[in-house]
Amino acid sequence: METILVVVKTQRGGVHYFPDADKMDLSHGEYLAHPHHHVFHIEVGIEVVHGNRAIECHALETYIHQWLEASHERIGNDRGDMPSQCDLDFKTSSCEQLAEHIITGLHHKYATDAMSVMVLEDGVRGGRVYWVKDKEDSGGTTVD
Predict the structure, then answer these.
(1) What is the pLDDT of residue 143?
(2) Domain residues of the chain, as ranges?
(3) Tens digits of residue pLDDT in 19-47
(4) Residues 50, 70 contacting (CB under 8 angstroms)
(5) Of 96, 55, 51, 93, whose CA–CA distance to 72 is shortest?
(6) How many other β-carbons are positioned within 10 Å of the β-carbon of residue 38?
(7) CATH no. for 4-143
(8) Can you state the angle between helices 95-109 and 57-71, rounded to 10 degrees?
(9) For residue 129, which of 140, 137, 139 has the smallest C-alpha distance?
(10) CB 63: neighbour CB atoms within 10 A?
(11) Of 15, 65, 79, 86, which has the fewest Cβ atoms less than 10 A away?
(12) Which residues pair with 89 in a beta bridge?
């Protein structure tokens, strides 16, 4: 059986922090307890029923940015005319939590049986969440 995914990769500047970082054995991570900046690399894959633009990639990318804008405070200075060029305050959210948040937003717009979201700090470290519709009910499951 063939599975077709629409995939979008995008980036968003933002600030977050890990308030309990000082409770962990982090020889180099003291800065994590304080707000710090990253370029968050986001990759979204959504299962579709056919391969002819069932979900248009540009529209999906726009929706991801709109969802993040609507749910997080803009901070810092705009670096251009596009709202997506302003940083967002992700507060204490981890990359995994941001991925879960994006999946929640995607459920508001797209009906699908499966999706995945990966969020990486500066493109090198982070988390991925898979969501697969539970065939026995209308809910879903997430797997880290």
Answers:
(1) 45
(2) 4-143
(3) 988 888 777 778 899 999 999 999 999 99
(4) no
(5) 93
(6) 22
(7) 3.30.479.10
(8) 120
(9) 140
(10) 19
(11) 79
(12) 15, 73
Structure tokens at 112: 């699908």
In this structure, what token pair is assigned to residue 91? 């507060």
Q: What is the pLDDT of residues 44-95, one digit of tens each?
A: 999 999 999 999 999 999 999 999 999 999 987 555 545 456 799 999 999 9
Per-residue tokens: 4: 């077709």
Which two tokens mark 113? 């049986």
Hunting for tokens 């409770």 — which residue is that? 23
CA separation for the pair 42, 105 (Å, rounded): 14
